[in-house]
Design brief:
The chain has 138 residues and is an alpha+beta fold. The protein has 3 helices and 5 strands; from the N terminus they run H-E-E-H-E-E-E-H.
């Protein structure tokens, strides 16, 4: 974990550099927004469970979707332990469906977690868990 010279490294401003197995041409954009901006955007609720931003502690916003901390915690725990995914969620290998965060399709990723008609790949799920601090040491 590092912080460029001249940047405030307090816990509120710390930047976590994540290993997302990026390839040439991949792009990563991180934008910090407040709850009011989230409500005004297209991502005013969790794409996976429908919880509004006013009812959740944290939200990670992707290119086409948003996921709340509760869904991240549940999905990450299921992936880590091999337990069943929460109700309504399934692990799919549909080649026509892509991750709502990175845009990769099955074949480029090892399956997709699908719930409420939207998908997230395991790599992006781990990244979301790291961003919101679900995992010890994150």
């Amino acid at each position: 974990m590092g912080c460029p010279d001249g940047i405030d490294a307090s816990p509120e401003r710390r930047v976590h550099w994540l290993d997302a197995h990026l390839g040439i041409g991949d792009e990563v954009t991180v934008r910090i927004v407040d709850a009011l901006e989230m409500v005004a955007s297209d991502h005013g609720e969790c794409s996976y469970c429908g919880a509004g931003v006013d009812g959740v502690v944290s939200v990670v916003v992707g290119r086409r979707v948003a996921i709340c901390g509760s869904c991240v915690t549940q999905f990450d725990a299921a992936l880590a332990s091999g337990a069943a995914l929460p109700a309504g969620a399934s692990l799919q290998d549909d080649p026509s469906r892509g991750c709502g965060f990175c845009g990769k399709f099955f074949g480029d990723v090892a399956g997709l977690i699908v719930r409420n008609g939207v998908a997230i790949c395991p790599e992006c799920m781990r990244t979301c868990a790291d961003i919101i601090g679900v995992r010890p040491g994150a």
